Amino acid sequence: MKFTKNVIAIMSLVALTATGAIADNPKRGGTLVASLTGTPRVLNPAVQSGIVTGLVGSQLFAAPLRYDEGWNPQPYLAKSWEVSEDGLSVTLNLQEDATFHDGTPIKSSDVAFSVKIIQEFHPFKSMFAPVTSVDTPDEHTAVLNLAHPHPALMLAMSGQLMSIIPEHIYGDGQDPKNHPRNNENLVGSGPFKLVEFVPGQHVIMERYDGYWEEGLPYLDRIVARIVPDSSSRAIALQNGEIHLSTFENEPTIVNRMVAADGISVSNNGYGGIGPIDWLAMNVTRGPLKDVRVRQAIAYAIDKNFILKAVMRNTAKDALTGVHPDSPLYNPNVNAYEFDLDKANALLDEAGFPMENGKRFDITMELVPFPGYKPQTEYIKQALSKVGIMVTIESVPDFPSWAKIMGTMDFDMSLDSVYNWGDPVIGVNRTYMTSNIAKGVWSNTQGYSNARVDELLDAAARENNQDKRAALYAEFQEIVNAEVPIYYLNAVPMHTFYSDKVGNPPVDGIWATSSPMDKVWLKD
Amino acid sequence: MAIFRVLATRLVYATALLLAVLVLNFTLIHLAPGDVADTIAQSMGGADAEILAQIRADYGLDQPFLLQLGAYMSRVLQFDLGYSYFYAMPVTDLILQRLPATLLLVFTAQFLAMIIGVVLGVISARRPNGAMSHFVTFFALFGYSAPVFWTGILLLIGFSLKIQWFPVAGMRDVTVIGGVWTHFWDVLRHLVLPVVTLSSIFIALYSRLSRATMMETLSSDYVRTAKSKGLSQYSVVYKHALKNALSPVITLAGLQFSAVVSGAVLVETVFAWPGLGTLAFQSIIARDTPTILGILFFSALMVIIGNLLTDFALRLVDPRIRGKQ
User: Fold this and answer.
1) What is the DSSP string of B138-155?
2) Bond preceding residue A217 cis, omega within 30 of 0
3) Separation CA A279–CA A299 (nearest Å)
4) A138, A266, B92, B278: which could form a disulfide with B268 (CB 3.0–4.6 Å)?
5) Best mutation target, B28, B35, B38, B267, to test chain A (most A CBs within 10 A)
6) B170 exposed, middle or buried (CB, 10 Å; 0-12, 13-18, 19+)?
7) A205 DSSP β-pair partners
8) Distance from CA of B257 to the nearest CA of A (A)
9) Contact A507, A268 (CB under 8 A)
10) Which A residues, 219 through 248, put their C-beta within 8 Å of a C-beta on chain B?
């Protein structure tokens, strides 16, 4: 009898473990050590964007919404919300017992204040540009009034894009960008509060006990250690010094971590940030003015070689400027399958005959991001096969490259550009005629198409998701056919995490640029 | 009185040199295309033209060059090194925050390298064709020619990943709780691999130099005289010859003072050591002019102090120099 009981108990235990009922039972406590690839300039995401600020800032400050992996908004600081029928106002109903880290209640006036600060100081102006005012009928209701329907607003109210900051701290008349309490004595609204920030070394955060979600966060502390070298981060993860490393995109290291014991690797959660590698072409200069030349270049590049040999199967293909994880991505466009005959025919047709193995010379900037040289070298070699002789121009640093790109003083360059949630925020800027040569990561290709402008304008104001998707699908088809940009791949962003990490931040669309209040540590 | 005159003259030269360093570097940085507004835009994932213009206006980058230079020099003359555009804090605070880590790393590595290098140099000089000498030569050449980032990564794989004796990154583990000794032990553990990596270059330099000078000294007349007087081998080598052979080694050590900033960049990056080297590198990449100029100012200051200390040390060990004014 006793034997039977034991067998049943063991079998039950095995079954429970197998189904994850025991393994996934969150436990409170522990210190999660995460790595940062660089020093955040400022910890307040209302005035500073970027992925290093995002990881820390999203723990310190709460946004109105979260997003799940299906790109659906979920309650966060706003327990519910309504979009008016005409799309001209969005009402946020705030959590009633939410407080800032100094115990002051989070009120609708703080939401109004945060919108004002973000409108004025955040680099992504398009996020809240149509917001004309914020009404605060009561302490827990904020109504954002819009000049026109603005579907991008929902994504702009999630992740690190809309941090709710305290008016009683940042409304003291000092410059919010350089406010002394951006990095010290910080009063946030998120699940963790700041203990210490030592630039170049670490950020220490601990659980905010007044967090409105009962029982959360699970972790006692998060220590974000600044480790700029990717090899060192990988070794630190393997020997247990750190538990979590995000935004890792070096193919060799990704593959090494896939093979490592006790480490899990995931590329989920980067759709919101949406990074894409591409070859930018200046359509206002020389042979590149001709669309047939640009199409020929696309046909002459063997995408499979890049994906397999250079990116070592770690990157997803990208055919358009919308990230492949986005619901607005249109995969039904020309893939420009590798075809040298077609490339040669297009170049002949464009009036660039082959003479002594050469058609014309062209320059290509070597983008000063780590790891982009192999693609640049490959493209040079690939284009030489169709008679396009590429001279690679090296630049010493980012500002030098930014100057060249921002003033359109280039023929071609590799680039890596992020979607930042909605296309209105991170995609439109590359294609709108009104944004030609407005600094780095603007429309530096000089591309102009009236229909594209019309589509992007319409999509920015279209609240019906199906209609919006159709507008973006057409936009992607046109740009894909006119090739001001040849898309190489989605940047292979990966999260490495120790098997000790429960609920790793690989769900949703914002990776670690979202709250880690449900992350926990196993024994 | 003569010594004070020499000191005063040197101080005047040093001040002029420091000002020249600042003006020259300010000019050179401004000649390069682009500015810190682009880097701030990069760190933010992009910025439109309006934001870029706003950043430039905030930091006075839209002013004419001479006006910017004048404003900067007048601040420096009031001992204000300015405000870091990129780190959003005063440059002096930033440098002082990073300085202790670099001093600890560089001086420990230098000290260790000097002791080991000189001992190895002396040993190999005594029997230049012996097995030990060949081993030291091989060791020195290997240490000097191996790139430090490669040495660092190899040490990390061996001692942090495989046998896990030492931590991978940083100067301390912030999760460690305990008293002074616990923290001292923690920093010491973090220090070992960066020091071994950095000293691998210096050991090579010191051992080769001390070997050469020691061989020269051992073949000099006064050493032969000392030997013929019947002095012991120990006394000849360590009491007489070594003291004379040390002068070039001390000169080299003085020159290495500048390594406080430059020499440790790669080691600091591999081991995420929070020092001045990485700060200098990141500031150059970010075109953070006030921080670059602040570090260069500090670096020039260190070289000047290093030269003064070298003179002083040479006077201590070499009576021939002491006799000269």
Assistant:
1) HHHHHHHHS-HHHHHHHH
2) yes
3) 13
4) B278
5) B38
6) buried
7) A194, A222
8) 23
9) yes
10) 221, 223, 225-229, 231-233, 235-236, 238-239, 241
Q: What is the pLDDT of residue A13?
A: 45
Q: Which of B30, B36, B48, B282 to probe by mutation at the A interface, max A CB count within 10 Å?
A: B48
| Alpha carbons B223 and B239: distance in angstroms, whole number | 11
Angstrom distance (rounded) from CA B47 to CA B52: 6
Q: What is the rounded CA–CA span in Å between residue A385 and residue A228?
A: 38
Whether A269 has a pLDDT exceeding 80, the answer reads yes
Give pLDDT, residue B322. 63
Q: How far is B48 from chain A (nearest CA, A)?
A: 6
**In terms of Cα–Cα distance, which of B144, B162, B145 is closest to B153?**
B162
At a CB cut-off of 8 Å and minimum separation 6, what does B73 contact? Answer: B19, B22, B23
B164–A403: do the CB atoms touch at under 8 Å?
no
Q: How many residues does chain B have?
A: 325
Contacts of A241 in chain B (CB under 8 A): 167-169, 173
Task: Please choose, from the candidates A117, A94, A125, A208, the residue with its C-alpha nearest in 3D space to the C-alpha of residue A170.
Answer: A117
- Measured between alpha carbons, how far is A179 from A177 in angstroms, rounded to an integer? 6
pLDDT confidence tier of residue B105, bands split at 50, 70 and 90: very high
Lowest mean pLDDT segment, chosen from A6-10, A160-164, A189-193, A354-358? A6-10
- Rounded to a whole number, what is the distance in Å from the CA of A438 to chain B's nearest CA? 5
Chain centroid to Cα A158, Å, comes to: 12
Taking the C-alpha atoms of residue B284 and residue A358, their distance in angstroms, rounded to an integer, is 40
Nearest to A400 among B32, B58, B88 (CB): B32
B290: chain A residues, CB-CB within 8 Å? none
DSSP-assigned letters across all residues of A252-298: HHHHHHHHSTTEEEE-TT-TTT-EEEEEEE-TTSGGGGSHHHHHHHH
- Average pLDDT of chain A is 93
B171-228 confidence digits (pLDDT tens)? 988 888 888 899 999 999 999 999 999 998 888 888 888 888 888 888 888 888 888 8
Residue B80: DSSP 8-state? -
Q: What does the alpha-carbon distance between residue A362 and residue B257 come to, in Å, rounded to a whole number? A: 46
Q: Roughly how many angstroms between the first and final C-alpha of chain B, as a whole number?
A: 11
- The total of other beta-carbon atoms located within 10 Å of residue B87's CB is 25
Rg over alpha carbons for chain A, rounded to the nearest Å, is: 25
- Give dist(CA A477, CA A503) in Å, integer: 38
List C-alpha distances in Å: A103 to A98, A212, A455, B98: 9, 11, 47, 34
**Which pairs from B277-284 meet CB under 8 Å and 24+ separation?**
B277/B102, B278/A200, B278/A228, B278/B98, B279/A200, B279/B94, B279/B95, B279/B98, B282/A38, B282/A39, B282/B86, B283/B84, B283/B86, B284/A397
Tell me the two tokens of residue B130: 């012996």
Closest CA to A446 of A286, A316, A292, A299: A286
CA B275/CA B170 separation, integer angstroms: 10
Helix %, strand %, coil % of chain A (to 5): 35, 20, 45
Using one digit for the tens of pLDDT, what is the confidence trace for A169-182? 999 999 998 899 99
Does residue A42 sit at the B interface (CB-CB below 8 Å)? yes
Q: In this model, does residue A1 exceed pLDDT 60?
A: no
Ranges of beta strands (E only) in A46-198 are: 65-67, 73-75, 78-83, 89-94, 131-138, 141-146, 192-198
d(CA B308, CA B311): 5
> Nearest chain A Cα to B84, which residue?
A41
Instruction: With beta carbons less than 8 A apart as the criterion, state whether B98 and B275 touch.
Output: yes
**Is the pLDDT at A518 greater than 60, yes or no?**
yes
Its pTM stands at 0.85
Nearest to A271 by CA among A483, A505, A511, A19: A511
